[in-house]
Amino acid sequence: MAFGFIKTVFLAFPKGFYTTIKHLFKKPVTMQYPKVREQMAPRYRGKHYLEVYDDGTERCVCCGLCAAACPADAIYMEPAENEKGERYAGIYEINLIRCIFCGFCEEACPEEAIFLGHDYEFSADKRDSFIYTKDQMLANRPKEKPFKRIIRKVRRIF
Ligand code: SF4
Ligand code: SF4
């Protein structure tokens, strides 16, 4: 008993303090989320967004190629026509529960309309909230950066 007490005081306690002090001055591996957010790698595939032309017209023509390429059957769309007779997606939805973020939809799109962005926050408490709508995808569009289109083309090669 006495030996156990001595062992605790003279070995275990100092060892514990040493471990604490050793880590006290190390750079923390955690961050103050959500105040601080992780910068994702350039090729990270997160939540999708839909691109528009400079005049604000949607690039998506509802051709269905992304849905055909999708291995998870996660994309649903319904075509519509505007007043000029141009086809666009009246409904365009992605089921984020089904999606495996493979990026095939982005690769298949001939209009450069759909992309996977860097947004990784999409927890929700209702299943319906995971149906990601066209309006949400348009709103999720990041700010245009210089050389963005060139970067996209390079990404497609690799
Ligand atoms: S990332 Fe892959 S799984 Fe998700 S919608 Fe696109 S093709 Fe389907
Ligand atoms: S996102 Fe691209 S591939 Fe999908 S329907 Fe629209 S234009 Fe076609």
What does this structure look like?
The relative contact order is 0.16. This protein starts with a helix and ends with a helix. 31% of the residues lie in helices and 15% in strands. The protein has helices at residues 2-24, 65-69, 104-108, 134-139, 148-157; strands at 48-50, 75-81, 87-95, 114-116, 131-132. The strands form two sheets. The protein has a three-stranded antiparallel beta sheet with strand order 2-3-5. It is elongated. The model has no long low-confidence stretch (mean pLDDT 89). The protein is built from five helices and five strands; from the N terminus they run αβαββαββαα. It is α+β, with helices and mostly antiparallel strands and 158 residues long. Bound molecules: iron/sulfur cluster (2 copies). The site of one iron/sulfur cluster has 14 residues, from helix 3.
